[in-house]
User: Fold these one by one.
Assistant:
Number 1:
Amino acid sequence: MSKYKVEFDAERCKGCCLCVSVCPKNILIINQESINGLGYHTAGVTDMNLCIGCISCGLMCPDGAICVKREMMG
C-alpha cells in the first residue's frame, strides 16, 4: 500500500506533460482515454505504490491541478 496519494483535478489539467517530465519514478502519464470538459487529455498515475511523495509534480503544475497527500497508516 502506498504511503502517498496523488490527486488530480481533471477539469484544471491541460495535459501539458510538465508533471510527467519531472516525476523521478516515471509513474505519471497523460491518459489518452480520459478527456476533461475542455477537451484535454488528463494526467494520471500508473502505479501509486511507487510514489515517493516528492511533490515535484504538484510544484511543477502551472494550473494547480495536482495535490500529493500522505496517507495515514493504521
Number 2:
Amino acid sequence: MSDPMDMVIGAAEPASRDSAAAEKRRKAARAAEDAGDRMGAIALYRKAAGADAGDTDSIFRLAFLLDLTGEEDEAMSLYERLIELQPAPVNALMNLAVLYEDRADFARAEKCLRQVLDTNPNHLRARLFMKDVAASREMVIDDDGDRDVAKRNALLDTPVTDFDLSVRARNCLKKMNIRSLGDLLRVSEAELMGYKNFGEATLVEIKQMLSGKGLRLGQRLDDQRRQSRRDLFESLRGSGNEAALARPVTEIEFSVRVRKALQLLGIHTLGDLASRTEAELMGVKNFGATSLYEVKARLTEHGLALRNLDE
C-alpha cells in the first residue's frame, strides 16, 4: 500500500475537536507501530480518530493497518470516508482501488484511479494499475463459457512430453523446468534462446508445434507479468518500499548497454524489470553476465529481484 506521508489533505477542519488528545494518541500509535505492536497501534488510532473526527492521518493509518490484518470491510469504509474530502487523498484512492479490484468491483476501482489520473495524468502506479484493472475486467468470463474454459485449461495442463518433439527439445524444456503446455506459453523466444544449448532449430521446432494448435510462445506472459507485479506489491506491502515498483528505469544509473536492452524489452519501471527473468534479459543481444550483475545490484538496492523462471 501507499505511504501515508504522500496524502493530499484539503478538507475544512471541524468546528470543535480535541486535537491535542488526538495528537498524543497518534504519536503513541506510531510508537506502537515502530515496536511491531500492530493491534496496539490500531487501538490507539481508533482513539485518536474518536477524539478528532478530522484527524485524517490517524484515519488513514487505521484503514491501512486494518487492511493488513484482514479487516477489509472496515478499511474500505474508512478509505471511502477519506475520499469524500476535496481534493481526495491520492493514496487513499490508490489503496481503495486495490481493495475494489480484489473484490472484482472493477468499475469502482477504475473510478478511483481516474480521480488520481485526472489530477496527475503521469502518476505511474495509477497508470500501471489501470491497465491491470482493465485486463482483469476483460478476463471475467460468463458462466456460459465455463465449459470452454475447462477444456482450455485441460489443454494447457498437457505435459510437453505428450507432444511430438525431438529428444533435444524435450531435454532443454525439462532442464528449464517447463513441464506443461501452459508453462511453455509463459516463456518468450528470448528466454529460450538465452538458455545454454538451446539452438535455432529447437526453437523452430517448438514454434511449429505451437502454431499447429493456434498458440505462440509468450502468449501468457502479460498475465504472468501482471501477477508478478501484484505478488511483488503484496510482498512489499506495508514496508514503505512498494513505491519502488513504479520508479522509472530512466531514473536509475544504468549503463548504456543495459538501457538499450531495457528499451528493447519495453521495460519502463522497476516493477516491469522485476517481472522479467534472467533468461529473458540474457536473450537480448550483447547483454552478458556483467550487465546482468548490474541489473541485479540495482534491483537489490530497491529491495527487488528478478523473477524466477519457475514462479
Number 3:
Amino acid sequence: MFVLLGGLTAFGPLSIDMYLPGLPAIARDLSASESVIQLTLTACLIGLALGQVVAGPVSDALGRRRPLLVGVAGYAIASLLCALAPSAPALVGLRLLQGLTGAAGIVIARAIVRDMYSGSAAARYFSRLILIMGLAPILAPVLGGQVLRFTSWHGIFVVLAGISLLLLVGAAAGLPETLPVARRREGSLADTGRTFRRLAKDSLFVGYALSGGLGFGAMFAYIAGSPFVLQGIYHVSPQTFSLIFGANALGFVITSQVNGSLVSRVPPERLLLGGLITGAIGGLSLLAVVAIGGLGLAAIVPPLFVLVSSIGFVVPNAIALALSRHPEAAGTGSALLGVIQSGVGAIGAPLVGLAGNSSALPMATVIAVSGTGAIVTFLVTSVRSRARSPRADEQMPVSGYGA
C-alpha cells in the first residue's frame, strides 16, 4: 500500500513535470506563444483543484476505493486524448480534463493516510511517501527528455496513459478500503457545503494550508518558468534541463526524509517554519541574482536548488498540521488543501511567462513574493495557535494502522 499511495500522490508531478522538456516544442508545433502554452499548466492545476473538491467529499461518503478507481481510469483516457490534441486551445481543455481525473488519486491518497495516522505520525508518513512521490519529479523530466529523443511530445502523454493504467491495476488488486461505513458522511451537497464552510472558518486549518500552499506556489513558479528560462535564456538542451530539474528534485526527496526522521523529536510547526525560511532565502537570492544580471547559469542554479529542497520540510508538515484539525472529514479537508495549493500555483503560472524568453525576472519575482508571503501567513497562524490549547488527536493514531 505504501508503494501504491506514493504512486497515486505522484499524479500531480507526473502530469506537470514529464512534459516540461517538450514545452518549447509544443509551442512551435501548435504555433502558440509561451504564455498560451503555460496555460496548459494552469489548466491542469485548475483541474486538479476542482477535481479534489469533488473527489474528496465523494470519498468521505462512498469510501476511498471506488472514487479512486474511477478517477485513475479517467486519467488514462484523458492522457491519450492529450496526445491527439490538434491545437493549443484543445490541449488546454484536455489538460483541464486530465487534472480533473488525476485529482482523485492525489486527494484520496492523502485521505487514506489520515484514515490511518494523525499528528506527528501522519507527518512522518507523508515524509516517507515523498521518497516515492519524489521520484516522479526526478524521473519525469528525464523520461520526458528521453522520449523526445525518439518521438514527439505526443509520445509523452501516451507514456502517462501507460503509467496510469499500471497504477489502476495495482490499486484494484492491492488497495484496501480504509474508511469503514460507520465513519462515512452523509454525502449530500448541503452536507458537503457545511463541511467546507466549517473548514474555511477554522483559521488554523486555513493558515497551515495557505502557508504550505504559498510555499508550493513558489516551487510551481519555478516549475512553470524554468523550461523557458533555462532552455530559452541560458540555452541548455532538453536533456541538460532534465538533469538540472532532477538534481533539484533529489534535494527535495532528501530533505523530506530528513524531515521524516526529525518529526518525532521536533514539533512539525518548527520544521515547517524552518522550511519556509529556507525557501524564502532561496527565492530572495534568486531575485537578487536575476536583478544583477550577467552572472550566468552557475549563479542561478544554487538558489533554485535551495528553494526546491526546502519544500521537503514544507509540504508534509503543512498537510499533517492542517488535516489533524478535522479527522472526521479527511477527504473534504484534503480537497480544500488541494484547492488552495493548486489555486496558488494556477495564479502564478501565467505570470512567470510574461517576459517570454527575454527575462527571468517575472519567475524570480513570483518565487520571492510567494516565499515571503508563506512566512508571514505562518507567523500569523502561529500567534493564533499559541492562544489555543492543542487538540488531543494530534498525537494519536486513529486506528490500528498506526501501530
Number 4:
Amino acid sequence: MSTPRAYLFGGGGTGGHLFPGLAIAERIVELERARCGAPPRILFLSSNRSIDASILSSARLGDASVRFDPTRAAPFVVSPKGLTRFFGGWGPTVRQARGAIRALRGPDRSVDVRVAALGGFVAAPVVQAARVERAPVTMLNLDAVPGLANRWISRRVGTVFTSAEVRDPIANGWTRVPPIVRAQAIAPGEPGAAETLAGCRREMGLDPSLRTLLVTGASQGARSINRLMEAFIERERATLEGWQVLHQTGKDEVERTREMYAKAGIPARVETFIASMGLAWGGADVAVSRAGAGSVGEAWANRVPSILMPYPYHKDQHQRANAEPLERAGGAIVVEDLIEAGPNMGVAGARLAELLTDGAKRDAMRQGLRSLGPADGAERVARALVEG
C-alpha cells in the first residue's frame, strides 16, 4: 500500500495567490490518483478576506477532499495599527497551522503531510508552523520582485519554484517554471482558432460572430481601468464598431459600467467577478488587464494580445517586471497606469485604439505569445510535490 498523503496550501489575500495553488492542487489530485488509486486530502489555509472565501468556496477538484479555513494572518505594515494586526495574527495562525498539520497526519501520524507556500502574508506563519512540525515545505514565487514574505520563507525552506524571472541574488538555486495556470483559466481548444473564439463566446452568452475585448482588473477589479474605458468610449467609440466587451469590474463598479455600455450602444457583458476565466480569455481578440502573475500567465496560456497596465501603487513595481517576458516576445504592450482617465487615454487609450483597428498587429502578437511555449508550470510543481 502506498503511504497516504495530504497537502496543505498556505496563501491568500488575492486571487493571485490562490488560483496558482488551485492549479497545482488540480494536478496533484490526478497524480495521486495514478499513484495510489485515490485522491488526497487537501486543505487551504487562507486569509479572512471575502475574496478568499469567494474563490475557495466555489473551487472544485473532482472528488478530492478539499476544504479551506480562514486565518487571522495579516500583512506586515509599518504603522502602529498595521504592526498590531500583524503580530496579533501571527501566533494564532502558527498555532492553527500546527493543529491542521497534526490533524491531517492523524492520531497515528500515518499520513505524509506536504506543505506548499503560495507566497504572501498567510504563507509565512504557515511555513513557521511546518518547520516546528517538521513537515516538508515547497515555496512558490509568482512575482519578478519577491515580497518580504517570500524572502523570509525562501531562507527557511529547501525547495523554491518561481514562475517569474527574478533578477536578484536571493533567487540563486530557485527552479524556474512556466506560468502556473488553473485548468478553469485555459480555454478549451486551440488558442486563437476561430472555433475556439466562437465557442467560448457562445458559452459566455456573447455573440459568437463579434470580435471581443476583454477588460479585467483581475479578481478585485481596477477602478483606473474602469475609468479608462469610460473615457475611451467617450472619445474612441468608433473603434469599437463591430466589437463587444466582456468586462470584469470588481465590486461596487458593475452597475455604473453596465449603464455606460448600454448608453453607448455597445454590446457588453459586465460582471463583478468572472469564474470561468478560461472562456473569457478564450473568446477574446484583445485584452486590457493588470499585470499580476495570474493575469500574465492567463494571457500567455491563451495567447491573447494584451495591453497590460501594472498596478501603480506597488513600490517595487513587480507587476511591471512580471509583464516583461510577454513584452519581449511581442505578445503584450505594457503601459504605465497613470491613474487618471485623461492621462491614461494618451497612452493606453491610443494603444488600445491601434489594436482594435489593426488585425495584422493582433495576429503578430498572438504569434509572439505562441513562441513562449506552454504554460505548464502547474504540472511541474505538482510532480515535484508528489514525487519529492
